[in-house]
């Protein structure tokens, strides 16, 4: 039922709570626009929790001459790292030279360009490795002699989204989860949108001066189904899957392996005890919410990793998989892996008619620049408010020195000496300087309330409900944390019961 009260009017209604929608909401709210963001499921429940989780220039994009994208992405690495050094950190990548694939001089030249193209200040430069003597050569099959080691960064993708949404809300944005934008129509220069709570099915009408369609893989269906416009086929859906296996090697560097098909896959240390292997790159024509790995993808990833590791990786080794759909702008490229990863922003309509900004493509790495660009476009349509501000701003919990994570862990460990140091470290990774707000006066494990397994206590769950829009056990176990890898089904049932009482 639609309620009768006068509809609320906002400057901007953002559709989609992935990284791009949350980034736009944060930037716009910080400049003084009134913003509402609707996410039909959980924050980051779409593509933004299914990435390889790299803040990277994209070495492979150099081969496709995407210099603008690579330059912008490389420069964003240190900007994003400084904004959230708890959830973003540097990684070293080992690229073994494979006889019969790209020659060593090509790899060296590419990495030289990679080192110099973007503003690298803290990240170390490329080095050449002798894999016969370097520790990184130990898990690899015999015959790999030379490797190149270069820098990029890691990001906890789902937490990047939640913290971006939190910051947007702290700056005044109204963030609605489990709320779908079911329709929006132009009406006298304003949009009249109907939004629907997905649990109660209650509907509400909202008026907005401008819409931002950041629905990721659903961007075309929003254009057709919610906006009632015909003929949208701007997005090319490209599926990517990952497998997670028990830890394959002891050091903290990653591997980037070249495949005979011209693609690369990564093998990355993951959640202390695991190795993450991915990804695939396949055109996808199904419902984005139902995407899942196939046996062929599993075999492809196992075979690609086994080409390099001494101990073969088999489907039986897999403890978890996830898949996502890249919402790429359809630039007519023939192969899925060649479609542009760059973002495209399209403005339709104007101030008088009511405007919508449709967002295509983009990467976690470039979301801040994409958001700036969208808000500049917003200013062009509904009027200017505020300057660009996100470059030097921290995300919640990230207000400590870029290289100061270990100091922060030490500080928290001393302040909470009676708690398990591994728990304090895990919390510092997820919440940074917000650990004090989360733990409050708690000094011992008994002060943290019910235990749901794997170091997850009611105190943390309640913090996530109150501050990060967590509503279900999966929100907590797979997106706000990755404790889903460790808890038992019984733990999960007890957690779900606890959350049902709270939300
Ligand atoms: P999404 O995260 O999908 O968000 C869109 C949201 O809109 C969804 O949550 C959906 O529920 C919501 N929605 C849809 N319709 C409605 C509606 N009517 N009402 C309300 N809400 C709605 N990038 C990197 O930088 N580094 C990487 O290592 C990397 N690896 C990747 C690996 C893979 C396999 C994939 C698939 C992508 C990878 N990316 C990477 C790219 C990156 O993940 C995506 O570009 C980014 O997450 C897209 O975010 P988004 O906000 O546009 O879409």
Explain how this protein is built.
- The protein is 30% helix and 24% strand.
- It is an alpha+beta fold and 503 residues long.
- Strands 3, 4, 5, 6, 11, 12, 13, 14, 15 and 16 form a 10-stranded mixed sheet that branches.
- It starts with 7 loop residues before the first strand and ends with a helix.
- The chain has 3 domains: 8-46 and 159-234 and 341-392, FAD/NAD(P)-binding domain (3-Layer(bba) Sandwich), CATH 3.50.50; 237-329, D-Amino Acid Oxidase, subunit A, domain 2 (D-Amino Acid Oxidase, Chain A, domain 2), CATH 3.30.9; 405-502, Helicase, Ruva Protein, domain 3 (Orthogonal Bundle).
- β12 (254-258) and β13 (264-270) form a beta hairpin.
- α11 (458-468) crosses α13 (489-502).
- The structure holds flavin-adenine dinucleotide.
- Residues 15-21, 38-41, 45-48, 50-54, 180-181, 214-218, 222, 226, 240, 279, 324-327, 362-365 line the site of flavin-adenine dinucleotide (FAD).
Give me the secondary-structure topology.
Layout: E1 8-15, H1 19-30, E2 35-38, E3 54-55, H2 67-83, E4 88-96, H3 104-117, E5 127-130, E6 146-155, H4 157-170, E7 174-176, E8 179-187, E9 190-197, E10 203-213, H5 219-226, E11 235-246, E12 254-258, E13 264-270, E14 274-278, E15 282-283, H6 295-306, E16 318-329, E17 344-348, E18 355-360, H7 367-382, H8 405-415, H9 421-431, H10 435-439, H11 458-468, H12 473-480, H13 489-502
Parallel strand pairs: 1-2, 1-10, 2-7, 4-12, 10-18
Antiparallel strand pairs: 3-6, 4-6, 5-6, 8-9, 9-10, 11-14, 11-15, 11-16, 12-13, 13-14, 17-18
Helix pairs in contact: 1-4, 1-7, 8-9, 11-13
The structure holds flavin-adenine dinucleotide.
């Amino acid at each position: 039922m639609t309620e009768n009260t006068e509809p609320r009017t906002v400057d901007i209604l953002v559709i989609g709570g992935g990284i791009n929608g949350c980034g736009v909401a944060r930037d716009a709210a910080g400049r003084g626009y009134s913003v509402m963001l609707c996410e039909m499921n959980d924050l980051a429940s779409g593509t933004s929790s299914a990435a390889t989780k790299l803040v990277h220039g994209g070495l492979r994009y150099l081969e496709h001459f995407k210099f603008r994208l690579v330059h912008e992405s490389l420069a964003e690495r240190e900007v994003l790292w400084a904004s959230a050094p708890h959830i973003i950190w540097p990684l070293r990548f080992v690229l073994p030279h494979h006889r019969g694939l790209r020659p060593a001089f090509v790899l060296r030249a590419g990495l030289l360009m990679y080192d110099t193209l973007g503003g690298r200040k803290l990240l170390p430069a490329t080095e050449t490795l002798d894999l016969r003597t370097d520790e990184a050569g130990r898990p690899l099959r015999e015959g790999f002699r030379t490797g190149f080691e270069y820098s990029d960064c890691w990001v906890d993708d789902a937490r990047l989204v939640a913290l971006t949404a939190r910051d947007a809300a702290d700056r005044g944005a109204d963030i609605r989860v489990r709320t779908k934008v079911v329709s929006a129509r132009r009406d006298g220069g304003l949009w009249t949108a109907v939004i629907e709570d997905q649990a109660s099915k209650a509907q509400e009408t909202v008026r907005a001066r401008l819409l931002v369609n950041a629905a990721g893989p659903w961007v075309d269906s929003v254009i057709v189904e919610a906006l009632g416009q015909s003929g949208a086929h701007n997005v090319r859906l490209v599926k990517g899957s990952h497998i997670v296996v028990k830890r394959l090697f002891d050091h903290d560097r990653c591997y980037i392996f070249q495949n005979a098909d011209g693609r690369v896959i990564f093998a990355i240390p993951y959640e202390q005890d695991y190795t993450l292997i991915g990804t695939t790159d396949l055109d996808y024509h199904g419902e984005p919410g139902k995407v899942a790995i196939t046996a062929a993808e599993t075999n492809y990833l196992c075979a690609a990793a086994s080409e390099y590791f001494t101990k073969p990786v088999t489907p039986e080794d897999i403890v978890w998989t996830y898949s996502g759909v890249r919402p790429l702008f359809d630039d007519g490229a023939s192969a899925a892996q060649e479609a542009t990863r760059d973002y495209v922003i399209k403005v339709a309509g104007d101030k008088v008619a009511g405007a919508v900004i449709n967002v295509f493509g983009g990467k976690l790495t470039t979301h801040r620049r994409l958001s700036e660009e969208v808000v500049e476009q917003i200013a062009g349509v509904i009027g200017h408010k505020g300057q660009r501000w996100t470059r030097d701003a921290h995300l919640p919990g990230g207000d400590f020195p870029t290289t100061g994570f270990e100091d922060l862990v030490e500080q928290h460990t001393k302040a909470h000496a009676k708690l398990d140091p591994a728990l304090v470290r895990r919390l510092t990774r997820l919440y940074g300087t917000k650990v004090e707000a989360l733990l409050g006066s708690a000094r011992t494990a008994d002060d943290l309330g019910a235990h749901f397994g794997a170091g997850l206590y009611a105190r943390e769950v309640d913090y996530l409900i109150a501050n990060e829009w967590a509503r279900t056990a999966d929100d907590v176990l797979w997106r706000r944390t990755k404790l889903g890898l460790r808890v038992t089904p019984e733990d999960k049932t007890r957690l779900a019961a606890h959350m049902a009482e709270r939300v």
